[in-house]
Design a protein that fits this description.
Structural class: alpha/beta
Shape: globular
Radius of gyration: 23 Å
Strand content: 5-15%
Helix content: 40-55%
Oligomer: single chain
Number of helices: 17
CATH superfamily of the largest domain: Trimethylamine methyltransferase-like
Length: 470
C-alpha cells in the first residue's frame, strides 16, 4: 500500500535551502544565552564570540547523523506507547494558549478547571497519542506552581505519554522528578523516553536561557525534545518563503547540534511552526496557505536529514468556531498528513493564531484527525479486496448491498463519523437538527461528565499531588 505523498520542492531545491542554512550558521551564527551551552559547543569545535556561536558545517552534519530517525515514547499504560518517525503521524492537542473561547464566542482567561477538561478530552480521544503539555495556561494557578500542576493533571487524567515543561532548567528537572515518581518509584531514574518537550527558538537566530536550560536537562536524561522555530515571514524572517525556510532550518539545526553535543543519540524532532505575517496589522497568520506550504516543505527538509518532523495541526486564525476555522484547519492538517509529518502538535482545539483553545473545536478537530488518518490509511489491493469475481457474479445492473463481501468489509473499510451528520434532511429534522457547534458542545459535556480516570496507584498519585502543590 502506497501512502499519499505531498512534495513541494525537488531534491535540488531542498539542497539549496540546506546549503543556505549552513552558510547562515557558519557566517552569521546564533546568539545562545547560556554559558554552559556555549562552552560545550566551543569544546566541540564551534567558534564563540560573546553570546554568538558560529557553527562549522562539519559539526552540524556530524550532530545530525547522531540523532535517531525514530524512537518510542513509553506510556504508563504500555498499550499507549507511541513511536515517532515510524510512518504514522503522532497527534497531540493544542499547546500554550492563554485563553479559552466558549461556544458562544466569548473569550476569557483559561483556568485550571479548563485544563482538566481538556486533559479529559485528550485522554478520551482515539486519535491523540499524547495527553498534552500546556493544554492551556491556567491563570488561576501561581506561575511558580503552574508547570507541576499541569503535569499532574495530564498524568492523572490520562495513561498516555505527556509533554514536559520547557520553561527553564528547574521546571524541566521538576518534570523529570515527577516522571521518575511515576515510572520508577523512589529511584527516580528514567531508563527510557517517557515524555517529549517543546524547545522553541527565538527568531531570528536566538536561543534563550530558559529554553536552553530545559533542553540540556532533557538531553542529559535521554528524553526527546522538539526543536522548533516559529518565524514570521515578513517580520521576524525575510518575506520570501525560501529565505524563511533557510532561517528556520538554521535555527533548528543549531538546537539539534547542541542536543547531540550534550548527549549523543538524544531523540530530537525537527520542529517547523513558521508561517507569514499579516502585513496589514503585523500579526502572525497560521491559517494562511503559505503556512501549509511551509509545513509540507519542512517535512521534506527534515526527512532529507533522516530526522522526524513536527509541524501542522488544525491551525486557524479565526477567533471563533466558524467556517474559517473549519477550512483553514482542514487545509493545514491535510497538508501535514499528506506531506508525512511525524508529530502533529496543535492537532485539536486551537483558535486565534495559537492564542486560544476551544473545547467544541477540540471535538470537531478530533473528527478531522480521524478523517485524515482514514485518508492516509488508503486500502489493500489483495484479490479479495479487488473483488473481481464478485463483480462478475453480480454483473450489470446488480447491487452489492446484501452481499457477504459488503457485510465482511464495510466496518473496516468505511470511515464512520462520530460528529458529522449523514442523515437525510427529514431524519435530521426529526433528530433535533442541532447545528454542529451545539452537537460539539453536547459531546464535550458527555465526555467530561462520564470520563473514567485511568487507574493510578494511590501512593504514586499522592506523591505527585504533593509535588504539584495541589
Amino acid at each position: 500500500m502506497t501512502r499519499p505523498t505531498l512534495a513541494t520542492l525537488v531534491p535540488e531545491e531542498i539542497e539549496k535551502i540546506k546549503a543556505a542554512s549552513l552558510e547562515i550558521l557558519e557566517r552569521t551564527g546564533v546568539n545562545i544565552d547560556h554559558i554552559e551551552a556555549r562552552e560545550v559547543l566551543q569544546a566541540a569545535g564551534a567558534k564563540v564570540e560573546g553570546e554568538r556561536v558560529y557553527f562549522p558545517p562539519k559539526l552540524v552534519m556530524e550532530a545530525i547523523a547522531k540523532a535517531p530517525r525514530q524512537f518510542t515514547i513509553h506510556a504508563r499504560n504500555p498499550s499507549k506507547n507511541i513511536t515517532v518517525g515510524a510512518g504514522d503521524p503522532v497527534l497531540a492537542p493544542g499547546y500554550g494558549a492563554p485563553y479559552v473561547t466558549l461556544a458562544s464566542g466569548l473569550r476569557r482567561k483559561a483556568t485550571f478547571v479548563d485544563f482538566i477538561k481538556f486533559a479529559k478530552l485528550s485522554g478520551s480521544s482515539a486519535n491523540m497519542g499524547i495527553s498534552g503539555g500546556v493544554l492551556v495556561e491556567p491563570s488561576d494557578v501561581a506561575e511558580k506552581d503552574r508547570h507541576n500542576a499541569m503535569l499532574y493533571a495530564c498524568i492523572v487524567n490520562s495513561d498516555k505519554p505527556f509533554m514536559g515543561s520547557a520553561t527553564g532548567e528547574k521546571h524541566a528537572k521538576d518534570t523529570l522528578r515527577m516522571a521518575g515518581i511515576l515510572f520508577d518509584g523512589e529511584k527516580g531514574i528514567l531508563k527510557q523516553p517517557v515524555m517529549i518537550s517543546l524547545i522553541n527558538t527565538i527568531t531570528p537566530l536566538m536561543l534563550d536561557e530558559r529554553m536552553v536550560g530545559a533542553l540540556i536537562a532533557y538531553a542529559e536524561a535521554g528524553q526527546p525534545v522538539i526543536i522548533a522555530s516559529l518565524g514570521m515571514a515578513g517580520a521576524t524572517s525575510p518575506a520570501t518563503l525560501a529565505s524563511a525556510l533557510a532561517l528556520q532550518n538554521a535555527e533548528i539545526l543549531a538546537g539539534i547540534t547542541l542536543a547531540q553535543t550534550i548527549r549523543e543519540g538524544t531523540p530530537v524532532v525537527y520542529g517547523s511552526a513558521s508561517s507569514i505575517t499579516e502585513m496589514r496589522n503585523g500579526s502572525l497568520s497560521i491559517g494562511a496557505p503559505e503556512g501549509a506550504w511551509i509545513i509540507a516543505t519542512a517535512v521534506q527538509i527534515a526527512h532529507s536529514y533522516g530526522l522526524p518532523c513536527r509541524a501542522g495541526g488544525c491551525l486557524t486564525d479565526s477567533k471563533i468556531l466558524d467556517l474559517q476555522a473549519s477550512y483553514e484547519s482542514m487545509m493545514s492538517l491535510q497538508a501535514a498528513g499528506m506531506a508525512g509529518v511525524d508529530f502533529v502538535l496543535h492537532a485539536a482545539g486551537i483558535l486565534e493564531s495559537y492564542m486560544s483553545m476551544s473545547m467544541e473545536k477540540f471535538i470537531m478537530d478530533d473528527e478531522l484527525c480521524s478523517m485524515v488518518r482514514r485518508f492516509l490509511r488508503g486500502t489493500k489491493l489483495d484479490v479479495d479486496d479487488l473483488a473481481v469475481q464478485l463483480i462478475h457474479d453480480v454483473g450489470p445492473g446488480g447491487q452489492f448491498l446484501t452481499s457477504d463481501h459488503t457485510y465482511q468489509n464495510f466496518r473496516t473499510e468505511f470511515w464512520q463519523p462520530t460528529l458529522s451528520n449523514r442523515e437525510t434532511y427529514d431524519q435530521w429534522r426529526l433528530n433535533d437538527s442541532l447545528p454542529m457547534i451545539n452537537q460539539a458542545e453536547k459531546r464535550v459535556n458527555e465526555i467530561v461528565d462520564n470520563y473514567e480516570i485511568p487507574y493510578l496507584d494511590k501512593s504514586i498519585e499522592r506523591k505527585l499531588k504533593e509535588m504539584a502543590g495541589i
